[in-house]
Amino acid sequence: MSPDRRWFFAEDVLRRSGLPPVLRRDAHALMQAGHENLSEGPVAVVTASGLLKPSSRRYVPDWVLGLETRFLVVVDVPEPGLMHLPRVLAVRKPDIRVHVSREWIAVRRLLVAQRRRDPFEGIVDAYLLPGTLVLVLGDMSIRSFPVKRIAQLKRLTRDALEGFTIDPGGSYLAWKNEGIHLGAAQLLEQVDPGFFADVEIARYASDTTGHALSVMRERQNLRQGDIPGLSERQVRRIEKGISRLTPEAASRFAAAFGVNLEAFLRDFSAAATELSGARQSIDDPENGPSPNASVLAARPSAAARSASVRGHQSAALAGDSGVS
Fold first, then answer.
1. pLDDT per residue as tens digits for the range 292-301
2. Rounded to two decimals, what is the model's pTM?
3. Which domains does the chain have, with CATH numbers?
4. What is the DSSP string of 56-101?
């Protein structure tokens, strides 16, 4: 296994975090097999007490220290002890690579996130800084969201903002007194739509991508030169698969089609899936298209999926306990 795809869960974390058996098995499976969604270095889930013991070098494998490992540290020691963590972990940018939490349930949320199609849609932890909502996502990235750019939150008082809870399964943040529920995908769409669009485009990238765009354009009775902001040559190269469809180009297509970016991406995913199924039917006339093709074509947007899992994964895997 490539070292940049490794996971490590310390034994005391697995023993003390109260994980249900299915998530304990997931943790062991991740340590054995790694994970394709780890694109930015390995992840280690440890306790502060384990790291600060004199025998800490035996607490974690050698590969954990010295690589670009990202750490989720469960805090079980007095606050002053945390000052020693950057030195023990030998990290140069602790604000990027180390997240500390006093909530054992953060370990549970991290594991639940790995069961999602896109782990970044799961919320591991969240906290407020002045004017900023900070989320630790299921891919262990730390994302900052300016409150003034979040329509549902920008008019709330500081006290109201601080009154959120995190869904036990990490599906959303809830401001119950205000009736507000926001998932990671919804926040990303508002604050960084380019990031979300890039994820959606990459998800359906294949040799049918250009053909799907061509079909969508022709359904609108548009020529390659009719996409404002893109030259005819640029459109031709994208449709031939020579150039990549970027979020910026997707926005240009969406505007030309008279829809917003989310609607364009939904139609794009359906068209790409439809063409993939048709190609498989031609290539394999005996078995026909994939039985999943119709399901994928009808799949809702990521924001809708984020809302729909609230009553499913959270209850099944995280239990009924809430955290603030």
1. 333 233 333 3
2. 0.66
3. 3-102 (no CATH), 120-182 (3.30.2020.40), 194-304 (1.10.260.40)
4. HHHHS-GGGTTS--EEEEE--S-GGGGGGHHHHHT-S-HHHHEEEE
